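INTERNAL TRANSFER SHEET
From: sequence group
To: structure group
Subject: Prepilin-type N-terminal cleavage/methylation domain-containing protein

Please process the attached sequence and return the structure record in the designated field. Keep the field labels unchanged so the import script can parse them.
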Amino acid sequence: MNAKTPSQAQQTTLAQRQQGLTLIEAMVALAIFAIGSLGIIGLFLNSFSMSAQNQNLTSGFEIAQSAVGVLRANGANALNLNGATASASSASNSLLAPVSSVMSAYGMPPQASVTIIVATTITGANLCPCNATVTVSWGNGASYQTQTIVGY
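Return from structure group:
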């Protein structure tokens, strides 16, 4: 009465073979997991790079706004700042000392600089109001530039 039919014997053998993972199945699962993990690591590395770039743009904006503030504070004498430069350690014009302080506070590298160009294209004469361009560069090719009208 306890005799097994052939179909039951085959089912038992099949069940015994399917009890665990084979080495090949485990290796395939591990390979799929590794490929997926590499994609996620790539996303993390890309986000760190973008974060550094955004930090540079934010500091560039703040430094440029500091330079624009100096230009606006000087009103019609803004032409005196044409061609002026500043770095984290020095400024070509004493009026740009606050800009150097801001650069130093942001930890800008030594090769970073701020350049101010003031052009009298609005009136055509050597008088303001003037177009002013402030460029903040990091020395590695990256830069931030803004334009404004000063001396009005």
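Handover comment: Residues 23-73 form the longest helix (51 residues). Helices lie at 6-17, 23-73, 97-105.
Transfer complete.
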